[in-house]
Amino acid sequence: MSRLIVVSNRVAVPSRKGGATAGGLAVALNDVLAQRGGLWFGWSGRIGQRQKKASLVTQGNVTYAVCDLSQEDHQEYYNGFANRTLWPLLHYRLDLTEFARKDLAGYRSVNSYFADLLVEHIGPDDLIWIHDYHLIPLAEALRERGVTNRIGYFQHIPWPSLDIFLALPNHAEIGRALTACDLVGFQTRKDADNFGSYLVEEAGAFASGRRLFAVGGRALRIGVYPVGIDRLGFARTAARAARSRFIQEVGESLGGRTMMIGVDRLDYSKGLTQRLDAFERMLQMAPDWRTHVTFLQITPKSRADIPEYAAMQRALGEAAGRINGQYGEVSWTPIRYINRSYNRSELAGLYRLARVGVVTPLRDGMNLVAKEYVASQDPDDPGVLVLSRFAGAASVLDGALLVNPYDIDGTAAAYVRALMMPLEERKARWRRMWQGLATTDIGGWADRFLSDLEEVDRDLPNRGFPLGNGHGSVII
Questions:
Q1: Is 37 left (phi over 0), alpha (psi -120 to 50) or beta?
Q2: Active-site residue 182, yes or no?
Q3: Domain spanning 4-227+443-463, CATH architecture
Q4: Of 63, 181, 80, residue with least CA distance to 131
């Protein structure tokens, strides 16, 4: 088995004290590396000066290699191109997409810096697995430094349709950078198809079938690998947490009321204001639920120095305040709005306590909160998941109540239906989702991707491709 090198924007070095907060990418990669061993490389999260060598920390069979960014790097690479250009564009938000050539130059510069530090740690047989939109140019930068290893890239967030991606100035520089990889993975079939269309229509790729391409004299495979969770481990964590003093105190504070829950990082892609608007509409449509239900929305702050996120925080706080002011009673607050993080165990207990889990992003790559909510439920008395049809998780959780988060009335009606759903229907829906989780278990996700990466055939003639470049049609 080849050694594994994982590369991501941030490296989450586990705390020796435990109790790490839940985060989809960090939890998934820690689980994979703990099983397989290897190196995890990326930004330390610190602002300082660029380094000539990465700093190393070893825990068990995993080595964490981290480096600092300069203030200019952070502004151009992270706050700029990654999060004010790529993030909104890849989430279909052209109205929020900003483009500055200086930020693009900084984005490429940081990827080159990462390549310079990483290349010293790459052995001849290592597999390299790059993660997410911050690092789209990294494989190309490694190839320029003579790296011939197999390189895989996984896109955790959506890949948009061709017309949306073409709105990006210099789209060719970004899209074609991924053709330096051997395997590019996506959360959903739609995302993979969108990228495949780009390869054929804009990058001059030959296509054989839906998932195999020849481009730039190289063979490139794309695939669908929906990220999962450790469903059994999370279920055990939730059962233990339900007996904890913290969860018991939260339950007592409800005073016998039913709890709904939403847990999301503060971001305009999560549909947070629409979610609260739907809750307000529910209180109007079904006044009998007033004083009988409490909505707990946990939203840790993120990217606070980016203006769009500061505006989002203000809007969400104003929405919660307006609803509480209009509908609240001395003994009842409709919405509990919390701007802090909770650890994985605490969240698992809160999920189990909630009768309704609300996951309603406007667009999401997968969304592991939806899967964690399902895994946390008591099989004998499970809650109901209200899930956006625009989340990748909708493709595997067919027992959820699917909603269009832009449809406030429809979402409000789904809230009422979830709150009133009979036990037998709740159990039947939960069983279907529990089985769905088994098809995207975290271990299986990594195994499938890495197995495909190891087996990629790089020999174009043997794959039936002509040599050279050109345009071709996707053969379905």
A1: left
A2: no
A3: 3-Layer(aba) Sandwich (3.40)
A4: 181
Q: In whole angstroms, what is the distance from residue 405 CA to residue 275 CA?
A: 7
CA distance 48 to 308: 25
| Alpha carbon 156 to chain centroid, angstroms | 5
Q: Write down the CATH superfamily of domain 231-438.
A: Glycogen Phosphorylase B; (3.40.50.2000)
Whether residue 364 lies in the annotated active site: yes
Q: How confident is the model at residue 328 (pLDDT cuts 50, 70, 90)?
A: very high
Of 249, 184, 174, the closest CA to residue 213 belongs to 184
Give me the DSSP letters along 269-303.
Answer: GG-HHHHHHHHHHHHHH-GGGTTTEEEEEE-----
Write out the two tokens for 261: 């829950």
Calpha distance 396→417 (Å, rounded) = 21
What pLDDT does 196 receive? 96
This prediction has a pTM of 0.90
Which residue's structure tokens are 């993660």?
131
In the chain, pLDDT over 90 holds for what percent of residues? 80
pLDDT of 303 reads 75
In the chain, residues under CATH classification 3.40.50.2000 are: 4-227+443-463, 231-438
Distance CA 440, CA 455 (A): 21
How far is it, in rounded angstroms, from Cα 301 to Cα 233? 27
**Is 165 within 8 Å of 89 (Cβ atoms)?**
yes
**Which member of 73, 131, 156, 230 is catalytic?**
156
| β-bridge partners, 293 | 258
CA dist 405 → 158, 273, 278, 351, 361 (Å) = 17, 10, 9, 21, 7
Burial of 171 (0-12, 13-18, 19+ CB in 10 A): middle
Tell me the backbone φ, ψ of residue 261, rounded to 5 degrees. -140, 140
Position 441 confidence tier, pLDDT thresholds 50, 70, 90: confident
Per the CB < 8 A criterion, the answer to whether 439 and 448 are in contact is no
Q: Is 241 exposed, middle or buried (0-12, 13-18, 19+ CB in 10 A)?
A: buried
Q: Among 343, 360, 339, which Cα is nearest to 351's?
A: 343
403 pairs with which residues across the strands?
388
Q: Please write the tens of the pLDDT for every residue from 207-246.
A: 887 789 999 888 999 999 999 898 999 999 999 999 999 9
Per the CB < 8 A criterion, the answer to whether 352 and 246 are in contact is: no
Computed on alpha carbons and rounded to an integer, the radius of gyration of the chain in Å comes to 23
Chain Cα centroid distance, residue 169: 25
Question: Taking the CB of residue 147, how many other CB atoms lie within 10 A of it?
Answer: 19
